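Chains adopt folds. We examine one example:
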Amino acid sequence: MTEKLYNTEILRLAADTARAVRLTDPQASVEKRSPVCGSRVTVDIDLDPDGRVASVGMLVRACALGQASAALMAARIVGQTPHELALASDTLGRWLAGEGDAPDWPGLTLFEPARPHSARHASIRLAFEAAAEAAATAASHRRAA
């Protein structure tokens, strides 16, 4: 491995999460924690009438890798469907584990140097897992209403 685990781009993205705010009355909110490192990410989701993400809020208390992943997730989440988010989350997990191609989500290949470090994977996955679950919960609440 020749690339550094924590590079300038990861640190820049991590700093972006300092400006993240929670939604005041989200349709769904999910918190995910990593038992390995203690990282924690809360994602709030509102869906539009078509069932796509209309807005996202976050609270990120994670290492630089988790923060950078949350920033990448938040940068592209608006307009995504719950299914697309679940697919991105699943694909990210498989790719980190060396079991598939990189997810079709801009910037995630930045975590290539973290792939050999399985203890770091949970933190990188947190925001995507929380977003996918929050979007699915919001969609199920909409169907039930």
Summary: The beta strands are 28-33, 40-47, 53-61. DSSP finds four helices and three strands in the chain. The longest helix spans residues 118-144. The mean pLDDT is 93.
